[in-house]
Give the backbone structure.
Amino acid sequence: MTKNYIAGEWVSATEASANVNPSNTNDVVGEYARASVAEAERAIAAAYDAFPAWSRSSIQQRHDILKAVGDEILARKDELGRLLSREEGKTLPEGIGEVTRAAQIFLFFSGECLRMAGEKVPSVRPLIDVEITREPVGVVGLITPWNFPIAIPAWKIAPALAYGNTVVFKPADLVPGSAHALSEIIIRAGVPAGVFNLVMGRGSVVGEAMLQSPKVSAISFTGSVPTGRKVAQTCIMADPMKKVQLEMGGKNPMVVLDDADLKVAVECAVNSAFFSTGQ
């Protein structure tokens, strides 16, 4: 069984789920741990305890860690792309392309670590300056979808760590392999214990623990509209209220006019609905 990563340790679980290749259901990628509520709460507590030191860590340390992550992902893009395509269903070129994008995201935010800046603006009151700085919010719970199983986690994890937040990461139940591989890379890069935690499992268990915990300051969610509405409502009603960022699923409408080139229109419709997301 492939384990969760909590408080600087790889942790076994009492339950596991099979990660099955959608294009060959006889191909089992692996057995991946499913965390319990208690394990999710332990990960949250570890992130909470690690936050004060990480939020005060040097920008050079954060840069070095994120750059190491990006460099390793890029060096292993073919291997990781094959894993992504195998468990999620993308074509291999798109799997490798997504992994390359994830590497670029980490490398971009490694650079951002070194150029953090505030603002100094004049005040309407004489002899007074107004200075604006940006501070990390605390523990960030990250809930990611199945259709981009390494790029979307990268979009969330890299900026969260770059700006001094600690992370509890719950990937989609269908695609734990890419998340686990990414987590191994982050850990090898030298992230301190508790700063980054991988908690695989059901949204109704792990995600719910994040939503209910007063130690989680912010949630970033990508997924379905019904679940996103629940996430938003729970975050707003929490005391203290959690910051929340949502990217919810759905299909944009497409209008095809009667004078359209149908060959082009059909190709656009198929690509917009199904291209490279594993359906």
